[in-house]
Amino acid sequence: MNIGIIGCGIIGSRMGQGWQKAGHRVVGWNRTVSRAKDAGFPLVDSPAAVAAESEVIMVVVADPPALISVTEGPEGLARVSLKGKVIMNASTVGPADNQRAARQIQGAGGEFLEVPFTGSKGGAEAGKLVFYVGGDKDLVARMQPLLLQIGQKCFHFGAVGTAADAKLIMNMMLANLMEAMTEGLVFAGKAGLDMATFIEAYKMNAGYSVLADMKLEKMLVGDYSTHFSLKHMDKDVRLALERAAALKTACPLTERLKEIFSEAMKTGWGEEDFSVLYRMISKQSM
Ligand SMILES: NC(=O)c1ccc[n+]([C@@H]2O[C@H](COP(=O)([O-])OP(=O)(O)OC[C@H]3O[C@@H](n4cnc5c(N)ncnc54)[C@H](OP(=O)(O)O)[C@@H]3O)[C@@H](O)[C@H]2O)c1
To answer: Is 151 exposed, middle or buried (0-12, 13-18, 19+ CB in 10 A)?
Structure first.
């Protein structure tokens, strides 16, 4: 199959490589060509050019404005006929953003699925992503085998918008968990606890998580190489709070977390992994 990737960043490039390994022909487009030079598959000039060469197109861009740009911009996907093509959006955006993209794509004759995911850089490299899927049931059934070539599981939540909600809620919980773990680790250090013993005991505590497995050891040695950037988690916390407000849902802890993320963004660490919160709380505790 001919597959196109729009947005060849940390995840998009690895999704493309995964599909290449599975035997597909992959082309991509990236706004900044130089950043995608190691994508491992050929790049074309525009999202519309990706559409011309592909039957299935995966969009993996930063945020809602980026999604609008690649769908509705002058050389966006919806500017050309998308008849017979399936467009999937894996970018983390709000439900209304995906519903808007769906209208644009369908207006140009294409089919649309939202497929936000979890699993980060390591999951994308290992083909172990977990997809949250929103859209037509029959289209989900047709696309699932392809998604499972780069992922381990698909959860179909319902119509377009439902998977975006699920993703925002999951990331809101994850962001809070990171802050809680960060504060606890800094606190344990300040209390003079033996960290090796503390971590061994933490692993047997109900509060231990997969997140700790992924991040903890690296945080303690100051390795914030980016798997999931602070700037994207900052965006996700904001999107989650906007959606929560629209649904009149109280999220007092996350409201405070938004301020903490804003402080962290002001340090200029937005491109680093979101576990860089540990460096900020450590500095504030000196
Ligand atoms: N990394 C993870 O662990 C992870 C996990 C779950 C979900 N996500 C979500 O997946 C998406 C991509 O994440 P990532 O980690 O791959 O991010 P990334 O490495 O920062 O890549 C972002 C991509 O979006 C493009 N982009 C940004 N603004 C754009 C615009 N206005 N128009 C067109 N393209 C634009 C970037 O192009 P340039 O190179 O030109 O900047 C780049 O290709 C985000 O929505 C993120 O929240 C990521």
So the answer is: buried
Token look-up 């894996």 returns 90
**Ligand 1 lining (C-beta closer than 6 Å):** 7-12, 30-32, 35, 60-62, 65-66, 69-70, 91-92, 117-118, 120-121, 227-229, 232
Query: Please, which pLDDT band fits residue 199 given cuts at 50, 70 and 90?
Result: very high
pLDDT tens, residue by residue, 200-222: 999 999 999 999 999 999 999 99
* Residue whose CA lies nearest to ligand 1 atom number 25: 61
Q: How far is the CA of 278 from the centre of ligand 1 (A)?
A: 23
Contact 110, 82 (CB under 8 A): yes
Q: Note whether 11 and 121 are within 8 A (CB).
A: yes
| Dihedral angle computed from the Cα positions of residues 8, 14, 15 and 21, in that order, rounded to the nearest 10 degrees | 130
Burial of 43 from C-beta contacts in 10 A (0-12 / 13-18 / 19+): middle
Residues 6+ apart with CB under 8 A from 174: 211, 233
Q: Residue 231 C-alpha to ligand 1 middle, in angstroms?
A: 10
Using the structure block, give the residue that is written with the tokens 């798997």: 227
Q: How far is CA 110 from CA 44, 76, 87, 107, 265, in A?
A: 20, 13, 7, 7, 38
Calculate mean pLDDT across residues 247-254: 98
What domains can you pick out in the chain, each with its CATH number? Answer: 2-159 (3.40.50.720), 165-284 (1.10.1040.10)
Q: Which residues pair with 59 in a beta bridge?
A: 6, 89
